[in-house]
Design a protein that fits this description.
Layout lengths: L1 E3 L4 H7 L3 E5 L4 H5 L2 H7 L3 E4 L4 H5 L7 E4 L1 H9 L4 H16 L3 E6 L4 H7 L6 E4 L1 E3 L2 E3 L4 H7 L10 H6 L18 H10 L6 E5 L11 H13 L3 E5 L5 H11 L7 E2 L6 H10 L2 E4 L3 H8 L3 E6 L5 H4 L7 E5 L25 H12 L4 H5 L8 E8 L4 E5 L3 E2 L2 H17 L5 E2 H11 E2 L3 H22 L3 H10 L4 H4 L10 H16 L10 E3 L2 E2 L1
Parallel strand pairs: 2-3, 2-5, 3-4, 5-6, 9-10, 9-12, 10-11, 12-13, 13-14, 17-19
Antiparallel strand pairs: 1-4, 7-8, 14-15, 15-16, 18-20, 20-21
Helix pairs in contact: 5-6, 10-13, 11-12, 11-16, 18-23, 19-23, 20-21, 20-23
Length: about 525
């Protein structure tokens, strides 16, 4: 299925100008996390799935909306007719796309199907994933990201900022994700929600049970919020309604005060409901990203495969409780725990209730986390925006580990690779280290200092495009693998300088953030 949205006169005019096209055929939350890129590109066309279409149509930062069902294309390609009939069927489905005047194509999905769609415009500039010499290839910095996510404990780059980097913006294009709420949807939301009291939306489900906080925990949270006079709305899809029934059964008579909207709202109305709520409590879901896009404050409960630094609530002022077992964040299709998910029970209802009431009271995320009794394995983090985009500040200070120092070093290196105009200032990172972590142990300090020296040697190897020397450094310091395996003839510009920034961060971390007051900067390929 392929359909085109209605076009305004401005959209019709832009069609002939060879505008940009963004291909985003993943999940609902992925489209919302693409809105900073759309803003940076200046209203490109977008190609989305039928499920994403309401979000795309409500986005201010796009021109024409094209709607395609990937399953329809895949079925046409696999159909049992002759090859000639299959080609004819596919040609008919793709004909409306091929006639679109496009100057630049941005394919955001690591998918052979989407790479094939991007090739429909052979004269256009291609960005993102495409077929190249018989294999999938991305940007020069893509290998760094692919090797980085091999150990997701080290990732500190948000998906929205990675996607926005295709446009090489100077700073974050948006301070939050973007979604326009229509007046008619606001009216529907007013009819569905109680008036005259603080409101909280509870998103009970998630696309994988490993990411989902237990219903029993949500029930205890709901009971505590109701006792404090907070109005509650349950939000989610129709397939998640079984979770609502379980929660309402646990609440007993108190459940009569809860507005069960699960599966009873379309996307525009859901957006208006979330906008009307003072707080949204959710795991890593599309509803969480929609809440941030309409300006609702979020208490995010992350666990299992969910990694806040990758897909946490985008913007300033949100509070995240991240549960981490020794195996987290896990691979959701092959978890070490085989589905037992003990991390789902680490975040207690008492801690979530205290945090939720504080956020409803209007205090900062930092103050809302004060006094929370968090067990080992649960981190409290505050969402903040800086000159690159999203970061999450550690609120419950703990001893700095080698992994913490390495993650921050790779974050700063990655930022320099993704955006050549990014300025690394070690004073800012030093304050982040000093505020979020206590001093490392002597052994940790020794290991971090060793990594700092290795990163400096790696910078020299990358400066000379010596991939063999880079791999010898990696053999001594495996934590630098994402940078070392990016070295070589196809390395992104500035790889050597990114390694030098990583070395500076690791050296600071080895001293617990001390020595950062020099205010060194990495800018446009130099460090001073």
């Amino acid at each position: 299925m392929l359909a085109l949205s209605e076009r305004t006169p401005a959209e019709t005019k832009s069609q002939a100008s060879g505008a940009s096209l963004v291909i985003q055929l993943a999940r609902l939350g992925d489209f919302l996390q693409t809105t900073p890129l759309l803003a940076a590109l200046g209203k490109p066309h977008v190609l989305v799935t039928p499920a994403q279409a309401p979000l795309a149509l409500a986005c201010r930062h796009r021109e024409r909306v094209l709607i395609m069902d990937p399953a329809t294309l895949e079925d046409a390609a696999r159909a049992g007719e002759s090859p000639r009939l299959r080609l004819a069927r596919l040609g008919g489905l793709l004909e409306p796309l091929a006639g679109l005047a496009v100057g630049e194509v941005y394919n955001l999905n690591l998918s052979g199907l989407c790479a094939g769609l991007a090739s429909l415009w052979p004269r256009a500039g291609l960005h993102g994933w495409r077929w190249q010499e018989g294999r999938m290839a991305g940007e020069a910095w893509s290998p760094f990201l692919m090797h980085l996510v091999a150990d997701r404990r080290l990732t500190r780059l948000h998906l929205s900022d990675i996607l926005a980097s295709y446009a090489a913006p100077q700073g974050p294009p948006l301070e939050r994700l973007e979604h326009r709420v229509e007046p008619a949807a606001r009216q529907k939301a007013r009819e569905l929600l109680p008036a005259g009291r603080p409101l909280a939306a509870l998103q009970l489900g998630a696309n994988n049970d490993l990411r989902r906080w237990p219903v029993a925990s949500f029930a205890r949270l709901a009971r505590g919020l109701l006792a404090q006079g907070v109005g509650l709305a349950l939000v989610g899809s129709a397939r998640e309604r079984v979770l609502a029934r379980r929660l309402l059964r646990d609440l007993g008579a108190a459940g009569q005060e809860v507005r069960d909207l699960m599966g009873r709202t379309d996307l525009p109305t859901l957006a208006a409901v979330l906008e009307a709520c003072d707080l949204t409590v959710s795991a890593d879901t599309g509803s969480l990203h929609l809440a941030t896009a309409v300006g609702s404050r979020v208490l995010a409960l992350f666990m299992g495969p969910a990694q806040v630094h990758e897909t946490g609530p985008y913007g300033h002022g949100h509070l995240v409780l991240q549960a981490r077992d020794q195996c987290g964040p896990c691979q959701e299709h092959a978890p070490v725990c085989q589905g037992a998910a003990p991390c789902r029970r680490l975040i207690t209802p008492q801690a979530a209730l205290r945090a939720a009431l504080a956020l409803l009271g209007g205090v900062s995320a930092s103050r809302a986390s004060a006094g929370l009794s968090l067990p080992a394995g649960v981190e409290a983090l505050a969402g903040e925006m800086d000159a690159f985009g999203q970061r999450y500040r550690q609120l419950n200070a703990r001893p700095l580990t080698v992994g913490d120092g390495l993650a921050l070093a790779l974050r700063e290196a990655g930022r320099l690779l993704l955006r050549p105009d990014y300025v690394f200032e070690d004073g800012l990172v030093g304050r982040e280290l000093a505020q979020g972590y206590s001093a490392p142990s002597q052994e940790t300090s020794r290991q971090l200092a060793g990594l700092a020296g290795a990163a400096a040697r790696l910078a020299a190897a990358c400066h000379g495009s010596d991939a063999d020397a880079a791999r010898r450094v990696m053999a001594q310091a495996p934590g630098l693998k994402p940078l070392a395996l990016t070295a070589g003839p196809q390395a992104p510009a500035g790889l050597s300088h990114a390694c030098r920034a990583a070395s500076a961060v690791l050296a600071m971390a080895s001293g617990g953030g001390e020595g950062a007051a020099r205010g060194r900067r990495v800018e446009c390929g130099k460090i001073d």
